[in-house]
Records
---
Amino acid sequence: MAHLLDFEKPLADLEAKLAELRAFEADDDAVDLTAQISALETRVDTLRQSIYRGLTRWQRVQIARHPERPYTLDYVGALSSGFVELHGDRLFGDDRALVGGPATFRGSMFGSRDRTVMMLGHQKGRDTNQRRERRFGMPNPEGYRKAKRLMEMAAKFGKPVVTFLDTPGAYPGLEAEERGQAEAIARNLMVMARLPVPIIVVVIGEGASGGALGIGVGDRILMLENAWYSVISPESCSSILWRNWDHKEDAARALKLTAPDLIQNGVIDEIVPEPIGGAHHDPSAQFDAVGQAIARHLDDLEGTPTDDLLASRLAKFDAMGAFEERV
């Protein structure tokens, strides 16, 4: 059974009634329920539009966390061929919460050209064992150091980098701190700021704090319609300000963490639309939308002189948070 979010239950109940009517009519040729089915279909469509076109910020957070939502390796498999996953940071070990390697981006599917890129991103698990192994997509320092190694490899061979952000944050365990979690993330920020090849960042689900930013510095920041990106999760913000999680919806509103908020504030460059109901309702359509956006921006950045590329990247992040004081 599909995982239902609280606000989706009225729609699911109505869809179940519609399915019952259709099944009843199919079983009894003497019964004509065409008018009733048509009326209920209209109600279902109206309710669906009402729910998904008027989502609150907290509801978008819930969709971004949906367990059936496509993850990094799903995008890599759909958008590329010949992906070779590379392992290890050459210092401590491998981190399964962050995956990456070279692949051929199939730009020809989107009116562009095929090209070798370095793809990497956070990877959550589908079942209990995978979630434990990948720590729900929360990397340890070796994950960020692996990402740094792969990005420097891409720069060595002059290949663009494409990253997928989907994490509740960097892993907060004691051992992660002992091995230099903050240093690993900070060093990645420095390396990405100076990387002499194009970087495309795609926020596909959750983008929490430094855990996301550790692979989130790029020339183009794309964000899915129902993803979220913030310095802190709504629950943690509520816990700090109100000493409990009861105000998470208020925190989500205050944080302005959705794609429309962030494009208005200049944090991201493009919102990638999702199928109604979220990316998990039609993964193929979502892969196509993301692939088209990546191809378009890679084409736009191709051939840009390195000095211009780095200057533009620096100016982009320098402009964030600028404000005017009016007396």
Note: The first strand starts at residue 80 and ends at 81.
---
Amino acid sequence: MKFQMSKNSLFAILLRSPWWISVLIALLMGAVAFALLSGPLRAVGALSGLPFLVIAALAARRQWGLPSAARVAQTRQALAGMAWPGFAALLEQSFQRDGFTVQRGKADSVDFVLERKGRQMLVCARRWKSARTGLEALRVLQAARDAADAPDALYIGLGPLSDNAWPFAREHRIAIWQVDELAHALRGLPLGPVTTR
């Protein structure tokens, strides 16, 4: 049986929160215990916040290098106002910077064919402005992946996935990039007008 933390547990919430919140809780718990306890129990009470320091370290490790909320909002706004040629050029630059060989896709369902270390990934990104991504878009990408015998697939879109699209993506191991992942992937690239090839 695999242990899975409840997503609404205190520790799960703290892992998603800024790391410094866990540090503050740890310090507060330690200070209160130190003030209220006497004698040899003071040292033990002061350590009561230790689990929160561990959570803070885990959260800091997860959050290291992630874009700020302001950067995510700026990315969403810039990409929502962008035309396909500019967005495609940005993605191509990002993929190449990450070590992929990039080819433009020839089918409607595949916008890029990426290859790195002999492993191929099909990318569908042309519908990035869609308000919501349904199951059909992922089915088309999966069919193209099966036809190309590609081990990996990536769908890129700013809008949320429908309730039935998420299980399909998980079942078929289709990676999903939304605004948070795009803000990270496009770090350092200009989000203004982009010249296309």
Note: Residues 10-63 form one domain.
---
Amino acid sequence: MSVSQPLRELISNCTLPANEARILLAHLLEKHYQLPRSALLSRDDMTLNVAAQEEWQSLISRRVIGEPIAYILGKKGFHNIELLVGPGVLIPRPETELLVDIALAEIAKLNKPTKILDLGTGSGAIALSIASASPLASVVATDQSAEALVTAQQNAKLLNLTKQVQFLQGNWYEALIQQSQFDVIVSNPPYIADQDPHLTQGDLRFEPSSALTDYGSGLSCLQAIISDADRFLQPGGLIAVEHGFDQSESVINLMKIAGLVDVQAHFDLAGHCRAASGRKLKNPII
């Protein structure tokens, strides 16, 4: 092992983009020295010990081949919380925070204890963000992946939300123990079409394919969730789903066909239609 370079030189000489190098180096400083990220500036002449040097090289190598930074660090910030993540779960993305905001707005509107269902919870990102932000929320979160549920339950324990969020294993509504009705249903299901080139690019190459694609048109999971929503929503209850940037019209049509009312498109911060919502009729026509 060669003599370690100062932090500033490690960043400037790194083959990775500077912002990624800083993230990985800050992780090392916290892990090995219990130093905050600000040490990258305040102690930029500092050198790493042998163990940290070896791990630095390992982190760079993993990132160079494309492994997502979230998997390398083992964690990812989302909405108002930080989550453990790993190769068995989808990496939470900023656009999915839109679903959390929609649910929280509905809880604020109802202003009473609110039953939430999160379908396909993965790391627990949506369910735990909602529960963390609102003590009025009681959340049931489902996923067919046992591996994902282990991670979600770990996150719930770390966030002290085990009493507020219940996890069930199974495919969409099939996971529910009994016929239940909810005030809000939210879901970020697999919606990338099979053979979409994005599946072989960037972080998506490392994420579980079953959390990304339905191995078909990209609409089959959305259709299953939307078509059965009426059975699991309280009268007037809200369902909100995330979808692809080019699927808004199709998803809105699915909601209308399912008999949902007050159907709306929701835009992410980039200005793309990223979610759709609809309501069950308060007084169904007999």
Note: The mean pLDDT is 92.
---
Amino acid sequence: MNMMKARLALLVLASMAVMAGCASTESLYAQYDELCPVEARVTSTGLVTVTGIAAGGGAGLMAGESRTQVWEPAVYFGFDQSQMAEAEVRRLDSNLAVLKQYPTLQVSVQAFTDEKGAASYNQKLAARRLDQVVQYLRDGGISNGRIKRVALGEELPILSNASNEQRVINRRVELMPLDAQSRPLVLRADFAGSGGDEFVPPAPVK
């Protein structure tokens, strides 16, 4: 589970500096670090809460104002399912709110399955899961051009697929926030404070 938490954290929105009108290139990050501090706290269940402090204006923030938001690194699916359960829709709603608030953000969406079944079938299943997530984002007002997508099927499992508990984590669609040039945002997260190994799988798990 430690690898899972590290992977989750790596997919988390943690660079509010870009979105709040501060430095937007690597050469300026160091100069603006003290003006645009960003904190990311990993909870015991793997969620990451990001707090950005804007140095001045931008994205609806006043100078010095803090705003805490949650970016969900993935949504999960039941066995052989492409429809999102209500709990997973709520996860996706958190990301949708961030994307709507910061219109320059893009998002990378990658869809996966566990290894049960034929690889060709799993590729199609991953594509259906991808379509569900992308369509939900589009219905929520996110333009097609902001969404970078790929269905990878049973490739790149996080865990070994040896048990139901492991397979449910592999049945996922990952979401990574990108800047306006499609670059992954800078990560600052508290790995040491990531807490326990709790994970609540989506239902149904078969």
Note: The chain has six helices and seven strands.
